[in-house]
Amino acid sequence: MKTLKERQDELVEEFSMFDDWLDKYEYLIDLGKNLEPFPEELKTDDRLIKGCQSRVWLDAEAKDGVIVFRADSDAIITKGIISMLISVYSGRGAAEIAEDDFSFVDRLGLKENLSPTRANGLVSMLETIRTIAQNNR
């Protein structure tokens, strides 16, 4: 498995292949299509990420020293965003996640190119992932 920094750098490189933000949005949508199916019984209020305009469910299971995330959203770009975050953080140790500065998101330029409500949702997703990690240290 790649280190956290290697995976983040890889994602930044993948995004940099696209010059146009419409192409980057398409890439996000494709990431969302590759998300594992999320069981309907896990779509509960306690798994909803607060602060997102769309509905985003995040499930986390800590086992064998790592946190495994699963997620879903009812909006295609948001589903791509949470899929991207899961591809970076799922399967990593709680301390490693909690200590990350999430700066790769800034290097992607994502916040500046999302609507304000989606950008707020992205921040809420990152805060939720960090909180889960801190609670499982």
From TrEMBL:
Q: Which domain of life is it from?
A: Bacteria
Sorted alphabetically, which Gene3D superfamilies does this protein's record hold?
3.90.1010.10
Pfam families in the record: SufE (PF02657)
Q: Which residues form a coiled coil?
A: none
> Per the database record, which ranges form the Fe-S metabolism associated domain?
12-131
* PANTHER family per UniProt: SUFE-LIKE PROTEIN 2, CHLOROPLASTIC (PTHR43597:SF5), SULFUR ACCEPTOR PROTEIN CSDE (PTHR43597)
Q: Which family does it belong to?
A: Belongs to the SufE family.
Q: What is this protein called?
A: SufE family protein
- Which species is the source of this protein? Candidatus Cryptobacteroides avistercoris
